[in-house]
Every structure is written in C-alpha cells, then in structure tokens.
C-alpha cells in the first residue's frame, strides 16, 4: 500500500467512537497471541519462533478489520515494516504494534500489549492498548479515555462495565515514575535521580502510558530507542486522559518521521503537569 506523504484523509468526527472501534479490533489479536503464549514454555528461550508466530498471527487478525474500518488511511504495522512493506506515512495514518513487549512475552510476565493508534496531522488522536494476558483494554480519543475488562476476542462491555479514566495532577513531591522493565538506560536513570520521585515502577510495553492515564503514575521518561508503533496508541490514550508526551526540549512528540525510519527520539510522558513542574522541566 502506498500514499502520498502529504495526503490527508477523512477521519471520523467522533474520535472516542473511533477509539472504541480500534479497541474492538485490538481485542481480535488476543486469541492468536494467547494460543502461542500458552503453547510455549521453556523452549521459547532457546527458540523465539512462538513470538514470531504470535506477532504474525496477531497482525493477520488486525489488519483486515482495520482496513475495513479506515479504508482511506495507510496502515504502518511493525511486522510489515520489518518485511520492508511499509507505506510512506507522514500526516494521517494508522500505527500498529501487534505484539509490543517481546521481552515480556518471552519472560512470561504478561506485560505485553496490542497497540493501535490513529495519527492525524502528525499527532495521535485515537488509540487502543490491549493487554490480552490480563484481559484489560484502554481506549482514548477526543479528550475521553476508558479502561475495561475484555476477554480475548470478546465484544467490548456496555458502559456499566467500563471506567472513565483521567491522569492525576502531578504532585510536587512523591511522584511515581514508570520505567521500561527491560530497557533502562543510564540517561533515564540520571533523569530520575534528579527528580522528586518517591517510587519507580517497572512496566512492560505501552502499559506505562496507560498507568499514567489512569492516575497510577506521573512520569515515564524514555531516553532509549522506541519505534512510533510502540508509543502512538498509549500516547493517544494518555493525551485523551489529560496527559502529554513531550521531547526533552518540551515540544510534543510527533509521528510520521519516515526519514528517521519511524524511530522516536527521547521523550517524557507526563500526567497532568503543574505550572511549577513545567517551569522545572523547561530547557
Ligand atoms: N535498541 C532498540 N531499538 C529500537 N527499539 C527498541 C530497542 N530496544 C527497545 N526497543 C523498543 O522498545 C519496545 C519495548 O518497550 P519496553 O522496553 O518499554 O517494554 C520494543 O517493542 P517490541 O517488544 O514490540 O519490539 C522495541 O520496539
Ligand atoms: Mg513494540
């Protein structure tokens, strides 16, 4: 699939409804992922094939319904990109990581997710993050975000089975920092050492964004490498819950960086920052 990088495509006007639809698609990746997860035991460490199998099966479950949902938007998916089949995307497109947190899958700690994010004008506007091992789904779009329990492959619950979430106001002291469980670099450690953090919580994959979005954390610094498909969905959920994701110089983290191979630079995800916190972080 290809598109002109500057092309703009019509998006549904109700971005929260779009996020719900993305959630319904993300949940479809649950059954193939959990089949591979349950089948593989110790053999996985010596032979990574069940991970690849789960990645590919999850992507195959997601892409057709996603293309039907958003027929005018190019889809950039991790496995297709790895196979050299990525469309060139710049402004309006969809980012898919069918199995984010390969290390967590291999380590069998359940902290892996399915990520689907919609980008408009280079910004994430709707997203769904699904944790199949726990059956938890986060969705966000249009300034509204929710968390709910959904078993792999099931339908989304009615409103009574969902919880609206909002990032908490960043406390001046005793901030809770989320960090990668598997990729923690020296620069991130130095950032944390300079902050009034009471607690550092490790979490895999896009769960770090979701935990801040639901008020269980304040900051997620990431100075090590990530790809756009790792962050877009969680970024959309967090932004819809009142948080933000910025680069170290304070600019919003943007998407469609084709010339950089869709790699993100360093970023810091925040809950609802106070003015004092903004001033403290100013370059
Ligand atoms: N050296 C590296 N280069 C590029 N991306 C990296 C990387 N190390 C980690 N990542 C990204 O970080 C993601 C995992 O995030 P976390 O460490 O927060 O759980 C990985 O997603 P995948 O597991 O889907 O490949 C991968 O894309
Ligand atoms: Mg990933």
From TrEMBL:
<feature type="binding site">
    <location>
        <position position="97"/>
    </location>
    <ligand>
        <name>Mg(2+) 1</name>
    </ligand>
</feature>
<keyword id="KW-0997">Cell inner membrane</keyword>
<keyword id="KW-0378">Hydrolase</keyword>
<dbReference type="InterPro" id="IPR020550">
    <property type="entry name" value="Inositol_monophosphatase_CS"/>
</dbReference>
<keyword id="KW-1003">Cell membrane</keyword>
<keyword id="KW-0460">Magnesium</keyword>
<feature type="binding site">
    <location>
        <position position="230"/>
    </location>
    <ligand>
        <name>Mg(2+) 1</name>
    </ligand>
</feature>
<comment type="similarity">
    <text>Belongs to the inositol monophosphatase superfamily. CysQ family.</text>
</comment>
<dbReference type="InterPro" id="IPR050725">
    <property type="entry name" value="CysQ/Inositol_MonoPase"/>
</dbReference>
<dbReference type="GO" id="GO:0000103">
    <property type="term" value="P:sulfate assimilation"/>
</dbReference>
<dbReference type="GO" id="GO:0046854">
    <property type="term" value="P:phosphatidylinositol phosphate biosynthetic process"/>
</dbReference>
<dbReference type="GO" id="GO:0008441">
    <property type="term" value="F:3'(2'),5'-bisphosphate nucleotidase activity"/>
</dbReference>
<feature type="binding site">
    <location>
        <position position="100"/>
    </location>
    <ligand>
        <name>Mg(2+) 1</name>
    </ligand>
</feature>
<dbReference type="GO" id="GO:0005886">
    <property type="term" value="C:plasma membrane"/>
</dbReference>
<keyword id="KW-0472">Membrane</keyword>
<feature type="binding site">
    <location>
        <position position="230"/>
    </location>
    <ligand>
        <name>substrate</name>
    </ligand>
</feature>
<dbReference type="GO" id="GO:0000287">
    <property type="term" value="F:magnesium ion binding"/>
</dbReference>
<feature type="binding site">
    <location>
        <position position="100"/>
    </location>
    <ligand>
        <name>Mg(2+) 2</name>
    </ligand>
</feature>
<keyword id="KW-0479">Metal-binding</keyword>
<protein>
    <recommendedName>
        <fullName>3'(2'),5'-bisphosphate nucleotidase CysQ</fullName>
        <ecNumber>3.1.3.7</ecNumber>
    </recommendedName>
</protein>
<feature type="binding site">
    <location>
        <position position="97"/>
    </location>
    <ligand>
        <name>Mg(2+) 2</name>
    </ligand>
</feature>
<dbReference type="InterPro" id="IPR000760">
    <property type="entry name" value="Inositol_monophosphatase-like"/>
</dbReference>
<feature type="binding site">
    <location>
        <position position="78"/>
    </location>
    <ligand>
        <name>Mg(2+) 1</name>
    </ligand>
</feature>
<dbReference type="GO" id="GO:0050427">
    <property type="term" value="P:3'-phosphoadenosine 5'-phosphosulfate metabolic process"/>
</dbReference>
<feature type="binding site">
    <location>
        <position position="97"/>
    </location>
    <ligand>
        <name>Mg(2+) 1</name>
    </ligand>
</feature>
<feature type="binding site">
    <location>
        <begin position="99"/>
        <end position="102"/>
    </location>
    <ligand>
        <name>substrate</name>
    </ligand>
</feature>
<feature type="binding site">
    <location>
        <position position="78"/>
    </location>
    <ligand>
        <name>Mg(2+) 1</name>
    </ligand>
</feature>
<feature type="binding site">
    <location>
        <position position="99"/>
    </location>
    <ligand>
        <name>Mg(2+) 1</name>
    </ligand>
</feature>
<dbReference type="Pfam" id="PF00459">
    <property type="entry name" value="Inositol_P"/>
</dbReference>
<feature type="binding site">
    <location>
        <position position="99"/>
    </location>
    <ligand>
        <name>Mg(2+) 1</name>
    </ligand>
</feature>
<feature type="binding site">
    <location>
        <position position="78"/>
    </location>
    <ligand>
        <name>substrate</name>
    </ligand>
</feature>
<dbReference type="InterPro" id="IPR006240">
    <property type="entry name" value="CysQ"/>
</dbReference>
<comment type="function">
    <text>Converts adenosine-3',5'-bisphosphate (PAP) to AMP.</text>
</comment>
<feature type="binding site">
    <location>
        <position position="230"/>
    </location>
    <ligand>
        <name>Mg(2+) 2</name>
    </ligand>
</feature>
């Amino acid at each position: 699939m290809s598109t002109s990088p500057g092309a703009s495509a019509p998006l549904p006007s109700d971005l929260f409804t779009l996020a719900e639809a993305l959630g319904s698609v993300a949940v479809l990746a649950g059954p193939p992922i959990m089949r591979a997860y349950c089948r593989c035991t110790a053999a996985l460490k010596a032979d990574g094939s069940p991970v690849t199998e789960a990645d590919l099966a999850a992507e195959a479950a997601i892409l057709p319904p996603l293309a039907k949902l958003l027929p005018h938007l190019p889809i950039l998916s991790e496995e297709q990109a790895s196979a050299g089949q990525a469309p060139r995307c710049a402004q309006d497109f969809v980012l898919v990581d069918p199995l984010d947190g390969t290390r967590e899958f291999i380590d069998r700690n359940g902290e892996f997710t399915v990520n689907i994010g919609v980008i408009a004008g280079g910004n994430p506007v709707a997203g769904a993050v699904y944790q199949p091992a726990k059956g938890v789904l986060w969705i966000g779009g249009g300034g509204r975000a929710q968390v709910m329990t959904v078993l792999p492959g099931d339908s989304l619950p009615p409103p009574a089975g969902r919880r609206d979430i909002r990032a908490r106001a960043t406390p001046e002291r005793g901030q809770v920092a989320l960090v990668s469980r598997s990729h923690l670099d020296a620069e991130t450690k130095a950032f944390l050492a300079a902050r009034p953090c009471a607690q550092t919580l490790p979490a895999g994959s896009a769960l770090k964004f979701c935990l801040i979005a639901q008020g269980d954390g304040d900051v997620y610094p990431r100075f090590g490498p990530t790809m756009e498909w790792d962050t877009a969905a969680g970024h959309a959920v967090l932004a819809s819950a009142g948080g933000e994701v910025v680069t170290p110089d304070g600019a919003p983290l943007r998407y469609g960086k084709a010339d950089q191979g869709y790699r993100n630079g360093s970023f810091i995800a925040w809950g609802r920052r106070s003015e004092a916190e903004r001033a403290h972080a100013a370059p």
